[in-house]
């Protein structure tokens, strides 16, 4: 199944302490569970669906759970030799991310 990147990016951007987003792997759409105490929204039906079909729903991270620096480090660890060394040096130290 093809999943639109915009669906995932929008869900990650919208997720916060009040809303947890999931990707429905059957439909390719995002769904969310709201904190009922804060939002007043009733999620019981969807919550039961997610609990009963955990292989169908993939919890998406919030923008606060994504650590760009760690993602870069993990990518560099997949490389070998001079390219890895150059990239590792490029992300370290003062001024590494200045224009």
Secondary structure: elements and pairs:
Blueprint: H1 5-14, E1 19-24, E2 30-34, H2 36-39, H3 44-52, E3 57-59, H4 68-77, H5 81-90
Antiparallel strand pairs: 1-2, 1-3
Structure notes:
The structure is a single chain. By secondary structure, the chain is of the alpha+beta class. Helices cover 43% and strands 14% of the residues. It contains five helices and three strands; from the N terminus they run H-E-E-H-H-E-H-H. It has a three-stranded antiparallel sheet, with helices on both faces. The longest helix has 10 residues, at 5-14. It is elongated and about 55 Å long. The model has no long low-confidence stretch (mean pLDDT 88).
Provide tags for this entry.
alpha+beta, 99 residues, elongated
Through-space gap between termini: 39 Å
Number of strands: 3
Q: Major β-sheet, in short?
A: 3 strands, antiparallel
The SSE string, one letter per element, is: HEEHHEHH
How helical, in percent, are the residues? 40-55%
Categorize the overall geometry.
Answer: elongated
**Spans where pLDDT lies below 50 across 5 or more residues:** none
Number of helices: 5
Summing up helix and strand content along with how strands pair, one would put the structural category as alpha+beta
By oligomeric state, this entry counts as: single chain
Using the CA coordinates, give the radius of gyration: 18 Å
Strand arrangement across the biggest beta sheet: 2-1-3
Instruction: Estimate the strand proportion.
Output: 5-15%
